[in-house]
Design brief:
Layout: E1 14-19, E2 22-27, H1 41-54, E3 60-65, H2 76-81, H3 90-99, H4 103-110, E4 115-119, E5 123-124, H5 126-132, E6 136-140, E7 144-146, H6 160-168, H7 170-179, E8 183-184, H8 185-191, E9 196-198, H9 203-215, H10 219-231, H11 237-252, H12 255-266
Parallel strand pairs: 2-3, 3-4, 4-6, 5-7, 6-9
Antiparallel strand pairs: 1-2, 7-8
Helix pairs in contact: 1-4, 5-6, 6-7, 10-11
Length: about 280
């Protein structure tokens, strides 16, 4: 039967909209260039992921920023004044990281649907890592990126050291992280960090188009495929194949599988019901 949409979460510093089966989360703190540590964006991202995982009418997530930046990462003024997320002794700082910004990679790792980062402008430090947490990245020609933690005398405390080398390999990740240098959208594409680079006016249209393509697939198989892709990063081949066998058994027993095969044989568009 048709899945009904659940009530959307009430967000503070981000805007959540839905286009068909695609959720669009826009970081909406242009006044601070969508920084993550001095806003409520951590809460907003975590709540959005939890809502999507409960609401089977949603098939993909597009994440972008409003205004000048995708995200500037951490609040530099707070760092300088040793306040907010960056104040206190060693125990207090590590506690704030664990209870604060580190909730973002854990949340996005739990996301059951494909995610696309539409990088509209600078993605710096934790903002760059936020983009790397998504499954696919599409960048505007105006986008710039940097794994810039070393430039302010800290390490990537949000998981960037884990994420980036899985995208580009250890050697290139090491160079980017040890130098903290700024790269443009074209170099990011050359390095394999972003999939595509488009002109700024075309960014959201391209991201939504890709997300809607993902969302046109059988809903249950799409979510199971996302879970498999994540599991493959931490499992040995034999264990992974066992996992695949179980998920495949689930897929073969869905009405959408029969509908997909029937529509191919009958040369018509499928009508998936998420069942």
């Amino acid at each position: 039967m048709e899945r009904t949409m659940q009530e959307q979460p009430k967000l503070t510093d981000a805007v959540l909209t839905v286009e068909g089966r695609v959720a669009v989360l826009t970081l909406n703190r242009d006044d601070v260039r969508n920084e993550l540590t001095g806003t409520r964006l951590v809460d907003d991202i975590e709540q959005t992921v939890a809502w999507i995982n409960r609401d089977e009418s949603i098939a993909a997530l597009v994440l972008t920023g409003a205004g000048r930046a995708f995200s500037s990462g951490g609040n530099i003024k707070h760092m300088f004044n040793r306040e907010g997320s960056f104040g206190g002794d060693v125990y207090e700082v590590q506690k704030r990281y664990r209870e604060g910004i580190q909730r973002i990679p854990l949340a996005l790792d739990r996301l059951d649907v494909p995610s696309i980062a539409a990088i509209n402008g600078p993605a710096i430090g934790a903002g760059f890592d936020l983009a790397c947490m998504c499954d696919v990245r599409i960048a505007s020609t105006q986008a710039t990126m940097a794994e810039s933690f070393i430039n302010v005398g800290i390490i990537p405390g949000d998981g960037g050291g884990w994420l980036l080398q899985r995208l580009v390999g250890y050697q290139r990740a090491a160079e980017l992280t040890f130098s903290g240098r700024l790269i443009g959208a074209d170099e990011a594409k050359q390095l394999g960090i972003v999939l595509e680079v488009v002109e700024a006016p075309e960014l959201m249209g391209r991201a939504l188009g890709m997300a809607k393509t993902f969302g046109s697939k059988p809903p249950q198989a799409l979510r199971l495929t996302k879970r498999l892709m994540k599991a493959a990063r931490r499992m040995e081949l034999g264990d992974f194949l066992e996992h695949c066998a179980v998920f495949q058994g689930m897929c073969h027993n869905t009405a959408d599988h029969i509908e997909a095969v029937a529509s191919m044989m009958e040369k018509r568009l499928p009508q998936f019901r998420g069942a």
